[in-house]
User: Which sequence fits this backbone?
């Protein structure tokens, strides 16, 4: 069975890890840090359409000019990851803070301005008033603990880990919800 383009990175990562173990290339007494930058802004989805490759709210490198003049698949985003020993510890980005750039990027990915207004109304409205440039990064404390304790799986350091079916057995979640709870959060089920 041939490997799809989407599966290639996963298999290549698994091969890299296995070769590192077999060839004794992994120094277990060392923390090796790396910044991963220059993520592609767009990719082609399984239907050949343009889609965001990661975070749609990231600022494209080159701004509006890049979006209007470059091949979309060559546009890079201001996104970054901090990786230690092959484990992603933190992920972040410079956020898109310009309404014209945001609308152009979403239009390129197949959204209409009305869809952007309806799905991302808070951002759309805020950007009308001129949001300042901003960026951030979110550290994964649980991943840091995993590395420090030499745990093989992140579930070993999480207080209430989910099982393979995304269930929290300690909390009994997910649980059934009542119609009034659904109504409170504006969810309507049409069970015909």
Assistant:
């Amino acid at each position: 069975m041939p490997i799809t383009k989407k599966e290639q990175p996963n298999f290549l990562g698994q091969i890299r890890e296995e070769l590192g173990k077999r060839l004794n290339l992994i120094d277990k007494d060392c923390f090796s840090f790396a910044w991963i930058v220059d993520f592609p802004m767009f990719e082609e989805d399984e239907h050949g359409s343009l889609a965001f490759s990661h975070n749609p709210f990231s600022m494209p490198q080159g701004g509006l000019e890049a979006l209007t003049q470059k091949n979309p698949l060559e546009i890079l985003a201001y996104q970054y990851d901090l990786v230690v020993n092959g484990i992603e510890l933190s992920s972040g980005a410079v956020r898109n803070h310009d309404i014209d750039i945001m609308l152009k990027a979403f239009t390129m990915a197949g959204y209409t301005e009305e869809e952007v207004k309806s799905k991302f109304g808070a951002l759309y409205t805020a950007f009308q008033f001129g949001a300042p440039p901003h960026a951030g990064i979110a550290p994964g404390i649980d991943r840091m603990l995993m590395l420090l304790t030499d745990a093989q799986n992140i579930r070993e350091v999480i207080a209430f880990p989910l099982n393979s079916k995304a269930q929290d057995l300690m909390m009994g979640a997910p649980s059934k919800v009542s119609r009034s709870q659904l109504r409170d959060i504006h969810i309507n089920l049409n069970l015909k």
User: Anything to note?
Assistant: The helical segments are 8-22, 63-69, 99-108, 113-119, 121-128, 141-148, 179-184. The chain is about 30% helix and 20% strand. Residues 8-22 form the longest helix (15 residues). The chain has one domain: 33-184.
